[in-house]
Write a structure and sequence with these properties.
single chain; 22% strand; four-stranded antiparallel beta sheet; structural constituent of ribosome; four-stranded mixed beta sheet; alpha+beta; Ribosomal_bL27_CS; Ribosomal protein L27; Ribosomal_bL27; rod-shaped
Length: 144
Amino acid sequence: MSFSSLCRRVGLKDLIANATVYTGATEASGGGLNLVFRRWATKKSAGSTKNGRDSNPKYLGVKKFGGEKVIPGNIIVRQRGTRFHPGDYVGMGKDHTLYALKEGQVRFERNKLSGRKWVHVDPKDGHILHPIYTKADQPSGQLC
C-alpha cells in the first residue's frame, strides 16, 4: 500500500486533525508515532539588520587659509575643541568655530614654546586698529 493511496482513503486532513500533539519528550514516550511536531522559530522575523546607520558629515576643518581675504562673519575654521585659538580680530562661536570680525587677510601663527596655534585677521589697509591690538611698546608698570 503506497502513501498516496493512504492519503486518498483517509484524507490528510483527518490524519492531522486526529493526531495527538505532544508538548514534551515525557508525553511522547508513552506511546505511538507522533505525526505532528511543534516547530520553534530559530530566527527573528522580518529580517532585522544590525547595519544601515550612518551619520551625516560635519564638514570640519580650515575654510580660509593663510593669506586669503575675509570679510566680517566669514568662517575661518570649524573645529571640535580648540585646535586653533582666536587671535586679533577673530571671534569664537559656542561650537568653537572661528570667524572673522574685521575685513582683512587671514594669518596663522604658532607659539614655539607651547605649540599653541593662533588665527589672526590682519586688517585691510587704511583700517584703524583698536587700542587692544596695537603693539605699542609700553612699560609693564604703566596701565592705560
